[in-house]
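Two records follow; treat each independently.
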Amino acid sequence: MASSSPLLLLPFILAAGLCAAFSPAATTSTVLPPSAAASRRSTSLAAAAELEAILFDCDGVLADTERDGHRLAFNRAFARSQIDEEWSVERYGKLLETGGGKERMIAHWEEVGFPSAMPILGRYEKVANLHAAKTTIFNELIDEGAIPLRSGVLRLVDEAIERGVRLAVCSTSNERAVSNLVSTLMGPERADKFQIFAGDVVPNKKPSPDIYLLALETMDLDKDRCVIIEDSHIGCRAAVASGVSCLVTKSSYTVNEDFTGAKMIVDELGDDKPGVVTVSTLESLLPGALEGSRTKSWAGARYVDPYLATRRAYPTPSSWHE
């Protein structure tokens, strides 16, 4: 019988080669079953969503200090210095748009005129001295117990300490006032767990993100594993500009402010379930947790835990995302 032509055998040779190339023995890659792939993805997201640190603002977050703390201290300092000035609740609320106590006084007097007790020569030194006197009065109010912590603060701090989450306070207020508030109202053992970044440690105050960027750098933190807790519009702007997830707990002066960019907005951290803010709640706001969600969630402000069926979205300019 005549031998087959090489050209006639070519299609069979090519087919055999392709089969061998795609056989299980010829490939080194492994295709995970759906359940294993999902498990690996879940483990990766869980690691990404582990909270490393909570960065608290002070005034309005730890305690509702502005109206009946700082405002009163300013007014008493004015009176003791024979300055004919008294800030009303409404006026002080407007002045809170300026971050920092010295800056707040200057902004007010640049608008209405400086008092005769503050001539041009040595004016800013007098402002600094007046602010120091105001800080002393504010600390007296804290020591007297006139300014309590807000609901849920101690509970969340204790949970964070128990779980090894690092803590910091980042505030435009005077460092002495912030440290005294934390130590007096939380106790020295809790206070030892906090790093304080306050006052003039950065040149630009909120809404600049400088105070938060300093904390991230000093504490060597991963911003994607941190949450900032703020209460005001300018604080929220600072948090968003820092690239850190932000939760807003509204205070007496900030109820109607714009919190665009916040991941969640609550009335308070809370002490009574359901709906209290926990470490797990904060972890749900981290980028890894949000990216892992397969359900639609609000990319702007959300009310209470984003995974509760009762969450409520506030109308902030934002967009839906998967």
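The next record belongs to a different protein.
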Amino acid sequence: MGSYFGLYIGDQRVLSGKSYVGGDLLSVFSDSERMVMNPTENDRLLPFAPNSWEDPLEGTYFFYRTKASHIRQRLDIMGINLREVRRLFEMFYRQVEAENAYFRSGVLADLYEAEGLVDDFEEYTFGRWLNLVELALKINYKVIFGQLEPRDQLKELRSRTFEYFSGAMGFPDHDIDFRYLLRVALDFLPDAEDVTLDYTDLVAGGYYGEDDLLCAQAVESSAQDYTLSEKVVVLAEGTTDMPVLRDSLRLLYPHLAHYFAFADFSVVNAEGGAGRLVSYVKALVSMQLKNRVIAVFDADTGARAALRGMRDLALPKNIKVMQLPHLALAERYPTIGPTGVSELDVNGLACSLELYLPPELLQNPEGDLYPVQWRGYDQALGQYQGEIMGKTQIQKAFSETVRAIDEGRVQFEDYTWDGLRAVFEEMLRVLEGGDEQGLP
């Protein structure tokens, strides 16, 4: 008879499989989301129990559970985003148009007309497909994985093309990686919707042990999915930037933390700076590595000057470059120059990562913001380079604050994280493909 797993969106089982869970499905979950539950009459978290159980309360449940919004962000990081889905849609549509004579045949057209469906292939654009997906999901979530039976429920869409490809949620290729379909569907689901992978029956059947970490096992054994499953490598200008980015990601987006690896240049005494970061990126391009990489440059004159050296560099799809985003705090920030102290907009001139830390940590002992000091002048760009004073003190204050939050001595909510949120929002946007050429 076998043992089965089930994937649920809310309380609807949208997918099931036998004997083992594939690495592609496990790639959207984390072992930190693994749950083991001994249910009680008042605590039934799952709508499913193995068929072999006479009493659904008799055993232990094993499952992974996370939010729909978390999976959507994870897929974007993997490169499974709407931009890529659109590219694939248009490519496969052209193939069907040119090669699939059966689909275009009059015999099939007559069959679908008899069922009340419209031959809409000529108008079957990416936008129309998205509209049909949204309507189909209102009928039943099972349409995501082609599990909807009977398919008569889809007839109200009146789309011959969607019906023909209903096994792939209307996408014009039956063999598309289901994660692309899931990514599209998630745009039409509530962010807080629970997504649950229940593998209780597989444990009961002996396919997995009670202590097995399925996600870790999948990563170890999935050579074919290397590019999608491996972590995104983050590079930045300063050696002190890495722990700041790592710790702030863990605090702000804990569900994404294990999808990133932060290069620690301090371990090997490597030099920092924008020019050195450009050299690292060029070296990675020349090595033709498959890892996904994002290089984070400061929003200052030095970074802008260094990035000119990459203008003629063709970046591969897996390597992205970004600058720190516009910062509201920096629009009127205290500066020190030859004419004294004044408040100026230092965006693009002096915004290193320190300025994006909570402003509560940017204050000197007198309670004033550490100012930016103007240093050199770049003739080619026609602008000054600035640097915030008190960097060592700011970095120390940040590391102490993170430690205090971890130990429960202060609350995360006591600090303003808008700057760092903006950094990671920009990082996710770039990874999703927001910049076609990968350059800021």
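Discussion point: The radius of gyration is 26 Å. How would you locate this feature using only the token line?
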